[in-house]
């Protein structure tokens, strides 16, 4: 085939400013995404003192960055702006290169499975049509089957931003030098978290860091780009390739 048709919908803006902030500025489309941001948890009025109680905002941020970048696997759920479209994603990725992802945008959805040898992609008609003439042709050739591509998604330039754990966490923990403030403890899904807020030229970003011995960032809200929640920390990721009859090898296509 002439080129691989991929959905490059998840960029740094998906979790822009997580913990320490992504570099770069927002465009007007990003500013319009504030409606997708969920409300903040309510403050805890009588929260017991936790491991992060005596630490500064920067110290908490540093510990959260260390915890997130040391992960062997994690799951992320979020909504972000990709141009003028709202992209919804659910991904589970591991250091091994394995990845499971679902990305929905503009009424179309694509599923991705990455084993240690191959990457499999399955999009609906709307997704393939949105990729242009080549995408429509490819979608017609697949007939609802999975496209089988040699190599892991983590090694693919268009997919590694959300299927390579090191790249993903590296993007969302970049420090752009903005000042950080520490908020009062709040409760999020039954767990005490400390809000760390960074306000800069890119807007306001709030990371809700678990007030625990391992301070993971459980949720990040970006006033200009959207929201992302993290779970499944270090849980084993089991990935299974689709049945051969349900796949079409990239090498067998002459597009």
Radius of gyration: 19 Å
Q: How many beta-strand elements?
A: 13
Q: What is the average per-residue confidence, as pLDDT, rounded to a whole number? A: 78
Just give the CATH class: Mainly Beta
Strand percentage lies at: 25-35%
Question: What's the structural blueprint in terms of helices and strands?
Answer:
Elements: H1 28-31, H2 57-69, E1 73-82, E2 85-94, E3 99-105, E4 108-114, E5 118-123, H3 125-130, H4 133-142, E6 146-150, H5 160-163, H6 165-172, E7 180-182, E8 186-188, E9 191-200, E10 203-210, E11 217-222, E12 226-231, E13 247-249
Parallel strand pairs: 6-13
Antiparallel strand pairs: 1-2, 1-12, 2-3, 3-4, 4-5, 5-6, 7-9, 8-9, 9-10, 10-11, 11-12
In words, what does this structure look like?
The chain has a single domain, classed as outer membrane lipoprotein receptor (LolB), chain A (Clam), CATH 2.50.20.20. Strands 1, 2, 3, 4, 5, 6, 7, 8, 9, 10, 11, 12 and 13 form a 13-stranded mixed beta sheet that branches. The protein is elongated, with a radius of gyration of 19 Å. 18% of the residues lie in helices and 33% in strands. The model is unreliable at 1-38 (pLDDT under 50). With 255 residues, it is of the alpha+beta class. The protein has helices spanning 28-31, 57-69, 125-130, 133-142, 160-163, 165-172; strands spanning 73-82, 85-94, 99-105, 108-114, 118-123, 146-150, 180-182, 186-188, 191-200, 203-210, 217-222, 226-231, 247-249.
């Amino acid at each position: 085939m002439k080129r691989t048709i991929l959905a490059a919908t998840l960029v740094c803006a998906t979790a822009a400013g997580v913990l320490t902030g992504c570099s770069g500025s927002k465009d007007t489309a990003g500013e319009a995404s504030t409606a997708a941001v969920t409300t903040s948890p309510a403050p805890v009025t009588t929260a017991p003192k936790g491991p992060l109680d005596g630490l500064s905002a920067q110290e908490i941020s540093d510990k959260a960055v260390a915890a997130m970048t040391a992960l062997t696997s994690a799951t992320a759920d979020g909504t972000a702006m990709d141009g003028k479209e709202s992209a919804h994603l659910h991904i589970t990725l591991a250091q091994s290169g394995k990845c499971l992802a679902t990305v929905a945008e503009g009424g179309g959805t694509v599923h991705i499975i990455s084993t240690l040898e191959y990457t499999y992609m399955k999009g609906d008609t709307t997704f393939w049509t949105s990729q242009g003439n080549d995408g429509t042709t490819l979608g017609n050739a697949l007939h609802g089957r999975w496209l089988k591509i040699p190599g892991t998604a983590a090694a693919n330039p268009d997919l590694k931003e959300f299927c390579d754990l090191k790249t993903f966490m590296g993007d969302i923990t970049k420090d752009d030098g903005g000042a950080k403030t520490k908020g009062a403890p709040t409760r999020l899904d039954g767990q005490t978290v400390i809000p760390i807020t960074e306000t800069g030229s890119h807007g306001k970003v709030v990371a809700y860091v678990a007030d625990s011995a391992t301070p993971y960032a459980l949720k990040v809200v970006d006033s200009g780009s959207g929201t992302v929640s993290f779970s499944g920390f270090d849980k084993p990721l089991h990935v299974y390739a689709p049945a051969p009859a349900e796949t079409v090898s990239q090498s067998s296509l002459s597009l």
